[in-house]
Amino acid sequence: xxxxxxxxxxxxxxxxxxxxxxxxxxxxxxxxxxxxxxxxxxxxxxxxxxxxxxxxxxxxxxxxxxxxxxxxxxxxxxxxxxxxxxxxxxxxxxxxxxxxxxxxxxxxxxxxxxxxxxxxxxxxxxxxxxxxxxxxxxxxxxxxxxxxxxxxxxxxxxxxxxxxxxxxxxxxxxxxxxxxxxxxxxxxxxxxxxxxxxxxxxxxxxxxxxxxxxxxxxxxxxxxxxxxxxxxxxxxxxxxxxxxxxxxxxxxxxxxxxxxxxxxxxxxxxxxxxxxxxxxxxxxxxxxxxxxxxxxxxxxxxxxxxxxxxxxxxxxxxxxxxxxxxxxxxxxxxxxxxxxxxxxxxxxxxxxxxxxxxxxxxxxxxxxxxxxxxxxxxxxxxxxxxxxxxxxxxxxxxxxxxxxxxxxxxxxxxxxxxxxxxxxxxxxxxxxxxxxxxxxxxxxxxxxxxxxxxxxxxxxxxxxxxxxxxxxxxxxxxxxxxxxxxxxxxxxxxxxxxxxxxxxxxxxxxxxxxxxxxxxxxxxxxxxxx
Length: 530
Prior knowledge:
The protein has 20 helices and 14 strands. The protein is α+β, with helices and mostly antiparallel strands. It has three domains: 3-270, no CATH class; 280-410; 417-529, no CATH class.
């Protein structure tokens, strides 16, 4: 399934051309799409094989459908047909990845320019129906978007990415095709040109945005390839023995692409042969086995690219699967509400942090500060791998075990649920996330902010007497705990989300940095995900 988008791009390119222009040779589009698929210069932008191998497989699937959708939209607006088919294609794109959907929206003015009144109604019907078909997913996505992490991307531009050397001949053909399209007023070429220009515009100008500008570059590159295929097809269509020349193009393209391959074959083998076949897997498995026998607790680790020898630098995200212990990082971590605070701690515990773009300056390495943050975030175990980090961890944490090159430490006095000894109550405003960032970075951990309409006198603060609080059950669907602190706010160190519902108490209320606060009304309190 992860390679489905890769496999269908030649097919959707072929169908795109067959729909756009019957005077061309659509097979050329399918053949030349291989130049994009095997382009090794884009390793994360999306659409091609390296990007898919890096994890952008949903983008690749939606990207492949985009070209068929655009061609059918042109045909549909001209003939007032294919409403259901276009709606289904758009629905699949929506459920796969939002970027191609956004690009499709900015392409729609092209059809409005051709015939505003007629095409506007058709476009509205397609997009409204697609939204209705996907409303079970898209409506909650939009409604709860505020409870995801804000991303702020700086633009990344390289001329060599705009004009990869291996694609220069095709870009020249694309330029000739654009001139031909203007002279002949060919709507199909003009459509592809519009797609290319508008996406190049986003790539060059988008900055400090929630969307990385490089996500639009594959559309520019692919539109150039299709424009070149369009013009080459027109030339071959008027030649005798065009099948022979088509065969030469296919063979020549395959030989040329194969001569340029450097790492794709190795990466495919590395990704799909499985973790167990990696030479170093035994060490990772031994770590998982060791963690399995430890008492329950959340796990964090030093990040280092050296983990790549186990199969991926993100191999320790498999801890829940192989050891049953919860962690602070997983597949979709960057979108989680708690993500910025996790990556702040990561920056404090590693000399090679990943530092995703959340719009603030990350702190430098500081293990002492990290221990305070990990304790507050409910992290019980910390795993170090490099000698430099082990040296610093040994100064502030008790080591409980060694497994190969891994050292495991335990943070003392960690609780996933506990009564708050002090807090402040503030009204939730539109900039509550910025407040949470500033609060966390300043180290004001002893006095969390509860975002609520309640005044401070409505929430009791405990006296100096210790309050017994015990966690009974903790998983993704249900959290159960016992407490003697009835009426006293308890912090639950799990990301806040409106779908959490409380039995036996009030709440949950959003609190800094990204957690929940419950006010127990009974000794046994249950949080259920609904």
